Amino acid sequence: AGSVIFSFTDEWFTGGRLLDQWGFGVTRADRSFKLSADAVRHAWQQAPFAQNGKLPKVSVVVCAYNAARTLPECLRSLGQIDYPDYEVILVDDGSKDNTPAIAAEFPQIVYIRQENRGLSVARNVGAARATGEIVAYTDADCVADADWLRCLVQAMENQQVDAIGGPNITPHNDGWSAQCVAVSPGNPSHVMLDDCRAEHIPGCNMAFRRNALMRLGGFDPQYRQAGDDVDMCWRLIDEGGVIGYAPGGFVWHHRRETVGAYLKQQIGYGKAEALLHFKHPQRFSVSGHCSWHGRIYGSGTAGLPIIPERIYYGPFGLAPFQVVYRHNHYGLWACVTWLEWHIVAAFFFALGFLFLPLWVITAAMWSATLAVTINAAREATLPKGSPWWCRPLVAVLHLVQPAIREWRRVTYNLRLWRPKLSNEYLAVSHPVQEVDSHVHDLYWESRDGSGREQLLSRLVQESRDQDWLGVLGNAWASWDVKLAGDLWHTLHVYTATEQLADNRRFTRARCVAQPTLVNRVLSIAALVWSAAALTSLSYGALAIGFTASVVALVQNVRSRRQCLAAVTSLVARAGAQAGLTPVLPRGEASAPDAELPQSPDTVERSVQEYTLSPLAGDPMTA
Questions:
Q1: Quick one: 21 and 108 in the same domain?
Q2: Is the dihedral of CA 601, 606, 609, 615 positive or negative?
């Protein structure tokens, strides 16, 4: 990053002979300066910034919550930034320490105190108060470099991007525990698509054009501790925005001082990942892990791949620049530290009591985990003179962090995956066509041209009002709405409208209960256990497997019925709010009692009266 000019000229010998017929550089062989030396000297005096017109005003927003330990150093560094026009806004998110007293020591900053409403709300409050064209964010545990804003703004203007980020570096005077945390996984890192374009910039060092930030509606308030920066970057990219990178615009970022604080941070990241998964499912793999298109940069990723680095030597070793290339394929080896890996290994360990050779698989799996974590600790870049216990601690953190983070992600999902409808909603009746045990259809008619657009608009609003967790509109999916049911099922809603004569419309909604990944895995595990027990003629184990299968089946059926009842009630209420008239399913002579509001001039009709020709590519065709 940047430019390097050597201020010396060495003597070169080949075969005992002095080489003096070279012509590159700013000096001659006799050490005299070329004319280009004056041009370089003039440019170097302006480095690292050339004055190209007036710089835009920047509003620096710092969000703090109980950050009294590091806040004074942060605010002092922001007061010493070399930039002509900027302001500092401190948003206190309901701190219980002496943050207000610290803010009073810096009268030049804008201090805003609010009740504890989370990081995203604090960021939005700062952006709303900002008067600059650019809004830059850093954390209360960061120390900004004097040229931080100049680097960010110059790169943003040169690259013509909507957002910009830069590195965050661990200070050398942090304690040894913090140094170990710095080279462990899970720290804020940037994800690069190429040398200049980023897929993600961490929240401790990022800046946005204020109009772009406001156009996206600011940060999502559901991210109270973490995940807000990832969500914002993805939404910006999805809207066609571009995120740049300024390698010189760095901040010093204090890491967590203790292992406990680090693990608590990772637990918060796990919760954020659960929320991100449902909002951006297309950016996650089947296993629930984020799938980045770019390369993750950061000390915590070093050492994970066992495959060695490659050096480009050129044909017969004659390449003038022999570059070291590091690959970005961490998934193959990182998976051995995942929670799922340990669960599968534990399952094989349990099966080993029925078939002893399976313990070999368990031993091999956990040996691979130890090999990767030890290798990561061995290759970690720790400061010189680090105590002997640092590398063992790094190995332990590489082992524990993925499991802790994923456990929080899974348990948070389980806590939220519940049908959110009240008894009032569940009591609402609507003619329902049971296509099969997993699929329920609902039908409506309208005489005013209303159809699926109005239905979906109300469905999205009702889902939000009832705090359903899910994806409300995904451009990459065939379904229209995906809602979280419970541990066993997720719910997909498909809609379609047929245009009939005049303004008559016939609208269908299909509610599908899809087994979750946990459901499928547990079902397969029960079958494998039962097969192993039957093969080994272990009647006790067979009884355990049979009992578990029956319990799972009963719970599965109960879950499916509850989830379908909840989602059909939700869709029915949305249809009523949209002004659609319910239509009887096939085979029903009269409508069931319904408390749905209807217009006095509407007439209930049977679904047989409508032409149900399948629409092209209609996913709801039974």
A1: no
A2: positive
Q: Are strands 134-139 and 439-446 parallel, antiparallel or unpaired?
A: unpaired
* CA atoms of 163 and 207, how far apart (whole Å): 6
User: Is 20 found in the same domain as 59?
Assistant: no
**Letter for the amino acid at 368?**
A
Query: Residues 58, 214, 200, CA angle at the centre, nearest 5°?
Result: 75
Q: Give, in order, the Cα–Cα distances in Å from 416 to each of 223, 419, 420, 569.
A: 15, 9, 9, 19
Predicted local confidence at residue 267, as pLDDT:
92
- pLDDT computed for residue 367 by the predictor: 92
pLDDT of residue 590: 39
Q: Looking at the domain assignment, is residue 89 inside a domain? A: yes
Tokens 């003597």 belong to residue: 11
pLDDT of residue 1: 52
Rounded to whole angstroms, the Cα distance separating 592 from 589 reads 9
Q: What is the pLDDT of residue 597?
A: 34
Q: Are 313 and 326 contacting, i.e. CB atoms less than 8 angstroms apart?
A: no
Q: How many structural domains does the chain have?
A: 3
Q: Is residue 576 part of a domain?
A: yes
Segments forming the whole domain that contains residue 60:
55-262
Its sign, for the CA torsion 454, 455, 458, 464, is negative
**CB 582, CB 594: distance < 8 Å:** yes
> What residues of the chain score a pLDDT lower than 50?
302-306, 423, 589-622
Nearest-CA neighbor of 377 among 462, 304, 466? 304
How many whole angstroms separate alpha carbon 130 and alpha carbon 56?
13
Between vectors from CA 561 to CA 559 and to CA 567, what angle results, nearest 5°? 100
CATH number, domain of 239, equals: 3.90.550.10
Residue 546 and residue 156: Cα distance in Å, rounded? 63
Measured CA to CA, the distance from residue 571 to residue 583 in angstroms comes to: 14
As to burial, measured by CB atoms within 10 angstroms (0-12 exposed, 13-18 middle, 19+ buried), residue 424 is exposed
- Give the C-alpha distances (Å, rounded to integers) separating 527 from 301, 443, 457, 537: 37, 39, 43, 15
Please tell me the pTM assigned to this model.
0.73
Cis amide linkage into residue 202, ω under 30° from 0: no
SS3 content of the chain, % helix, strand, coil (to 5): 40, 20, 40
Q: Are residues 60 and 28 in the same domain?
A: no
Q: Are 440 and 434 in contact (CB under 8 A)?
A: yes
Cα distances (angstroms) measured from residue 247 to each of 6, 154, 303: 21, 11, 23
Q: Where are the alpha helices (DSSP H) in 417-538?
A: 423-426, 452-465, 517-536
Domain-embedded: residue 605? no
pLDDT computed for residue 200 by the predictor:
93
- Judge if 40 and 163 occupy the same domain: no
The 8-class DSSP code of residue 509 comes to E
Terminal Cα distance for the chain, rounded: 58
CA–CA separation, 136 and 163 (whole Å): 9
